[in-house]
């Protein structure tokens, strides 16, 4: 019996055959829609399948296959069912494999029974087909398990590869951190000496023909004093502060290093202008640090490639050698200073005692001269000459004793403008009497400073008085003052006769005077007061055009400056002055004997 006879013997088969003959278009439309739906379901992506309810996808496939199996025999239904069964087993996620197998087997058998007449042989064939469904289902499950096992292994391998790469990256980062830590200073995080050498050598390889590579070495000469007097913790804070301020002040391309305790090094590519700017920036940073830590001093040594060195190692070595020369010079100055203080101490004690011994006989001489003048006319005519000279000697001894004694200044805040106007008011009558003008050149803002106001007045009076006495005809004395950063600048200007070049180096020496009746003590006193205030005084003059005295004083006096530095400086200045006065007395005495 052939297939057509078998279909015609089945009620369902007869109905399908009748439908296909009566409505061929409709029949073709149903078959086409079913095939299209089946293909769509087969090609549906896994992410969309996972969104469907359980078994909805399986049932959709089964319905399409059952319709095609019942309506057409152009394709072997068993092959289609087995292929789709394996496909469903492979793509199923939540569905039970046994239920899928049962659904496919039952659907196949049901469609076959409804569309074909059955006998004993056909039943045995269906049983064998059912066994084939079970075998295909088992085989699909094995393939699925193998596939997913392979996928899991690939994912595991991928995961392990990622973890291994991450571990390698962490190891590399850790090694870089260790290497960077080895190349960095533990306290300031700047480069150490070895890393600085590497950076300098690398910088030389990038150097163009038009540029140079500069290395600047800096040493903190008195840094041990900070550790001793303020503690190691404070010293470490100072080093960190210097490092941070150098990083802020210098360009980002500058290589900054710290090595050998309190020594820093800076390297940078550039021309000579860049080198000057680097030095200026370093000096500005250290000047700012010194306002907070007055004991801190420093020295610099620099070298340039290729002008002065042929390689990186030689460049660094040359800069260090120049730094060593500066260090040796400072140490020699300190040793000479110490020896000088020891000598001046002994001379000062002797000279101070000598001054007291001279004043006592002068008092007696003055009394005898006055008594003798009252009794004798021959003595009386000399009284007007002897007594002023005795008073002059007493005044000199008084100033000498005042300078030989170390007296602390009384620092307090005051308005500098008010002090200057007080001095000008005091000196105005004398200026008017002499026919000269006093002109203040005030700054625009109020200027308050910390100093000994009386001593500042004494300086101004001496300088203005010298200026008034320098005129041979009508002249003008100008007083200028202003604030620059943390300093006060005062200038006393006159258009008088000026100072001869050979006298400029002597004017601050005791007893040096170009005036016949001058004591030569005024400028010495001014120099000492300015030095006690940790300031500077210098003079610029052109004969016939006038003189300018420049005073630079700190805006604020620090406690460290007052307690630790002033006493030593005062003693040195006092003893130097005593030595100079003693030498002068000795020279004068030798001259009198001769």
Automatic annotation (TrEMBL):
SUPFAM superfamilies from the UniProt entry: ATPase domain of HSP90 chaperone/DNA topoisomerase II/histidine kinase (SSF55874), Homodimeric domain of signal transducing histidine kinase (SSF47384), Nucleotide cyclase (SSF55073)
Domain Histidine kinase: from-to ranges: 353-557
Keyword set, alphabetical order: ATP-binding, Coiled coil, Kinase, Membrane, Nucleotide-binding, Phosphoprotein, Transferase, Transmembrane, Transmembrane helix, Two-component regulatory system
Catalytic reaction annotation: ATP + protein L-histidine = ADP + protein N-phospho-L-histidine
Domain GGDEF: 211-339
Coiled-coil parts of chain: 316-343
Pfam families, per database record: GGDEF, HATPase_c, HisKA
EC number: 2.7.13.3
Membrane-crossing segments per the record: 25-44, 56-85, 97-116, 123-141
A molecular function GO annotation: ATP binding
InterPro entries referenced in this protein's UniProt entry, alphabetically: GGDEF_dom, HATPase_C_sf, HATPase_dom, His_kinase_dom, HisK_dim/P_dom, HisK_dim/P_sf, Nucleotide_cyclase, Rev_trsase/Diguanyl_cyclase
Alphabetized PANTHER family for the sequence: PEROXIDE STRESS-ACTIVATED HISTIDINE KINASE MAK3 (PTHR43065:SF10), SENSOR HISTIDINE KINASE (PTHR43065)
Protein known as: histidine kinase
Organism in which the protein naturally occurs: Polycladospora coralii
Classification of source organism: Bacteria, Bacillati, Bacillota, Bacilli, Bacillales
